[in-house]
Write a structure and sequence with these properties.
Elements lengths: L4 E9 L2 E6 L2 E6 L1 H7 L2 H4 L5 E6 L7 H13 L5 E4 L5 H8 L5 E4 L2 H4 L1 H11 L4 E10 L2 E6 L4 E6 H8 L6 E6 L25 E4 L5 H8 L6 E4 L9 H11 L16
Parallel strand pairs: 1-4, 1-12, 4-5, 5-6, 6-7, 7-10, 10-11, 11-12
Antiparallel strand pairs: 1-2, 2-3, 7-8, 8-9
Length: about 260
């Protein structure tokens, strides 16, 4: 049985790390703030993967983003995925050669599949995660891209059937409605995922505590749960979440985080 994964997501916007709520941005701090409140060497043993996404609203500064990516990746020993604004092979090259093990693709899925294939031809489908942001519109789940500014014409269930043939290794599904709310994952979205879906699913949007993560990881259709909640998992938050998940017998990898057994 494949192990489940706990993934932490860092959102980067115009030079700062931010908290997002329904795709509305709250600035938090720079890389020094992250290093102060998230001891990067320590949390490397508390999560299975890290995702860092450039969601800049202004013109993206790829050089500045890469500087932050390098700092973050220096202390991590888990796979790192970088995303945001990847429009071609050149941008993918820069990220994958400067600290990223995988990349998160969003707009290319809907706008330029040929460039997606070019990236896959060089790095392989296993190095690409397809990012899908969705929300309810008139009780129907719809897909949005470009930081939620553009709506895709096809519904989620139809697109998931289509994307299974794309050169991507995993699917990252994020609920805009639950994004940053800490209210828990919207597990109703799972009904839009075809039965026995062939690509691993990373689920995100709404995790505010370990119980929310546990409920997600208990679902057969979910392979990994990601949280970008900077405030709820600050300091020892990720460690406590992982210990709680392992106590509940969630099939996570056993790194160096030890469970203190009660006497």
């Amino acid at each position: 049985m494949l192990r489940k994964r706990l993934i932490f997501t860092l959102l980067y916007c115009d030079g700062l790390f931010v908290q997002s709520r329904n795709f509305n941005i709250q600035k938090v701090g720079d890389i020094n703030w992250i290093q102060k409140y998230y001891n990067l060497k320590k949390i490397s043993n508390q999560i299975d993967e890290l995702i860092i996404i450039d969601i800049s609203r202004n013109k993206r500064d790829i050089k500045k983003f890469i500087e932050n990516l390098k700092i973050v990746s220096k202390d991590f020993f888990v796979p790192i995925t970088a995303g945001g604004g990847i429009k071609n092979l050149d941008t993918a090259n820069k990220l994958l050669k400067n600290g990223a093990d995988k990349i998160l693709i969003n707009s290319l899925l809907y706008e330029n599949i040929s460039d997606l294939k070019k990236i896959s031809d060089v790095y392989g489908a296993q190095s690409i995660i397809a990012g899908i942001d969705c929300k309810y519109i008139k009780k129907k789940i719809k897909i949005f891209y470009n930081n939620g500014s553009n709506q895709y014409k096809k519904d989620l269930s139809i697109f998931l059937k289509k994307i299974k043939n794309f050169p991507v290794g995993e699917i990252f599904i994020n609920s805009i409605d639950r994004d940053g709310t800490g209210m828990g994952l919207d597990l109703n979205i799972l009904k839009y995922i075809p039965k026995n879906y062939v690509k691993p699913i990373i689920f995100s949007g709404g995790c505010g505590n370990a119980i929310h993560i546990e409920k997600g990881l208990m679902q057969k259709k979910i392979n990994a749960v990601a949280t970008a909640n900077l405030f709820n998992f600050i300091n020892e938050g990720l460690k406590e979440a992982r210990l709680s998940l392992r106590e509940k017998k969630i099939n996570l990898a056993n790194w160096d985080v030890k469970i203190n057994k009660k006497k």
